[in-house]
Here is the input.
Amino acid sequence: MKKILVTGATGKVGSRLAKRLARRGDRVRALVREPRRATELGLDVELVKGDLLDEASLAAAVRGVDAVIHCAAFFRGATPEEAHAVNDVGTRHLGAAARAANVERFVFMSTIHVYGPNAGPRVGEDSPCEPVDAYPVSKLAAERALFAQEGLDVRVLRLPFVYGDGDPHIQEVVPMMRSFDPKQRMSIAHHADVAQAVERILDVREAAHRIYNVVDDDAPDLATLFAAVGAPPPDGANAERGRSFAIVVDGRRIREDLGFRPEFPRVSDAVARGGL
Here is the structure.
């Protein structure tokens, strides 16, 4: 049993992860800006008020914890300046606070979008990173800043499109991706598999690598992804617009190093088992 601080615990990934960690027996503390918004996390999750941009508020949040799982980020609607402030500078603040508190492990939730769009072979953790938009640019900067902090044991999980566990993420992107190429593929991961990756990172004593792509076995095309929620396939009217989402990555490293095996290898498995 570990004491774990989860940031972004009111978001899609963080909220589900915090609950799963609590259910497995970890003592979970959630860093939240507004505690009244986090009541759905339940009594098993301790709430501590703080903000990534308020360095003084972070010392109490990290005090006495064994690990930090940093999920918080500013994504949709963020200007480049806001993305930099929260995702890069805010992460530096949290990393410094964790190091000062002698936190054993810092797990940073990054994104596969740091690689930039690719239409060719699957890209691995050692592939060049060429992010295009402000969000992945800020995430990559944060990764590098964390690794530069001496005395901080950092592990990075690069996440793809995450779905399942009652998350309406697929339904939400249908309108935005309606004009994309129906044959366009992209890597995905179920919330249960993101949680599994975190648990394996927390429990392993050592790791051969510090960066892991977390993806399920199949990178479905958009027609298959849409069909999972009963939506017709995209019409392809503006396929070029979808290129920045056409990212397919290699997930072998975490399987080989940590024994990760997706609980939901394909989106069809989640549909068949009621995991959406």
